[in-house]
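Q: I'm building a small set of examples for a reading group on sequence design. Run inverse folding on the following structure and report the sequence directly after it, with nothing in between.
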């Protein structure tokens, strides 16, 4: 769609740029969109003329959510595993192999349909940028096709061949690491922007993780990491050492981990995934401790069939506020600008001139309602790249 579009009559505009408070709020505002970009932001009374107009009706407008951590390429579901957890079973990550079996058996079209369904679900809940990982194929061909399918839907694609050691390599993990670093990476890299490793007891130890991430960096992939989810460990500090864009989960952190993330030269974001703690009935990460130390925090869904089968950023915002002692403003910032930092993107997560025109109009007068009215569908309208959805 060409021509200019004015989003007008905005009661509360979250810019994450210049404006009031940490969210850069402007009141009685308007946003001019041209060629898919924000061309102008200012007072509605001074809004320039445009070819078309969206009337926000006095409601709140925010940058679209940036979900920087999701596993959408899979088949099957693990509802029974969820029910068992709610009856007292612990989460171990062992169910990943169940999904690997189902994913390998699925057709390309089945996988594609699942990715599109979940991406659509997320978009309707205000997510305008969504990272998508592989990691349920774990063969050269299945990881490559997972990423090929993911890349049809997102530019933020992540190779997670090192999710777990698949059953056929259970007694020779070194050989699996060799496969991941060799032929699997070669087949995956053309479709991937990032590389990720599940660095955890029972998955990949720190030496394997370092080796795999270094191979990915050598072919130009950016680094991100699943770290310190199920227990304390070296993952967070490995991520900081390698200059990872993000270390994700961060549920069990030592003081040294927090210090490393808060370091003056650290550019690594701590991405918190409260849907996982909700769905595994685990203690939530201590977001307050990270924020008070000055760490950049992102919120993401971790959407996957095992530990967090939600595609809803508003749900994660509400959890972060209620369960992780984030203020509503901190949670909204983490779900927008924080996610953008975790993906090293400057063009999303903000509504300032030059940014992508990815925005949501709420069915509410303030961003506060995202946490204040949990579970309520508050996303009235979404603009993606300037195009009303
Ligand atoms: O981020 N922790 C590793 N991977 C996923 C869970 C995958 C699964 O249980 O299928 C996560 O929580
Ligand atoms: Fe994950």
């Amino acid at each position: 769609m060409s021509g200019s579009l004015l989003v007008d009559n905005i009661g509360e505009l979250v810019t994450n740029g210049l404006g009031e408070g940490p969210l850069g709020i402007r009141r009685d505002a308007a946003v001019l969109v041209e060629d898919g970009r924000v061309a102008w932001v200012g007072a509605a009374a001074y809004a320039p003329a445009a070819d078309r107009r969206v009337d926000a009706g006095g409601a709140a407008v925010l940058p679209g959510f940036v979900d920087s951590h999701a596993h959408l390429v899979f088949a099957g579901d693990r509802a029974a595993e969820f029910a068992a957890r709610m009856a007292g079973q612990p989460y171990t990550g062992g169910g990943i192999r169940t999904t690997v079996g189902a994913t390998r058996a699925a057709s390309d079209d089945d996988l594609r349909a699942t990715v599109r369904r979940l991406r659509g679900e997320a978009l309707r809940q205000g997510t305008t940028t969504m990272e998508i990982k592989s990691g349920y194929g774990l063969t050269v061909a299945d990881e490559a096709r997972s990423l090929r399918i993911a890349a049809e839907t997102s530019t933020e694609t992540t190779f997670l061949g090192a999710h777990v050691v698949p059953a056929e390599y259970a007694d020779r993990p070194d050989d699996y690491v060799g496969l991941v670093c060799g032929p699997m990476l070669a087949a995956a890299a053309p479709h991937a922007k990032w590389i990720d490793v599940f660095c955890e007891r029972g998955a990949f130890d720190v030496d394997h993780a370092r080796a795999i991430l270094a191979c990915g960096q050598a072919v130009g992939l950016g680094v991100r990491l699943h770290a310190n989810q199920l227990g304390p460990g070296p993952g967070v500090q490995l991520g900081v050492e390698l200059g990872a864009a993000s270390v994700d989960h961060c549920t069990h952190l030592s003081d040294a981990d927090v210090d490393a993330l808060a370091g003056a030269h650290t550019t690594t974001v701590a991405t918190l995934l409260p849907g996982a703690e909700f769905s595994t009935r685990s203690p939530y990460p201590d977001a307050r401790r990270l924020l008070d130390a000055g760490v950049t925090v992102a919120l993401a869904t971790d959407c996957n069939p095992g530990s967090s089968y939600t595609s809803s950023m508003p749900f994660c915002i509400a959890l972060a506020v209620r369960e992780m002692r984030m203020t509503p403003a901190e949670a909204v910032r983490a779900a927008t600008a924080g996610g953008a930092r975790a993906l090293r993107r400057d063009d999303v997560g903000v509504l300032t001139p030059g940014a992508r025109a990815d925005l949501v109009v709420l069915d509410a007068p303030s961003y506060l309602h995202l946490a204040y009215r949990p579970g309520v569908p508050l996303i009235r309208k979404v603009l993606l790249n300037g195009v009303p959805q």
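Residues 108-124 form the longest helix (17 residues).
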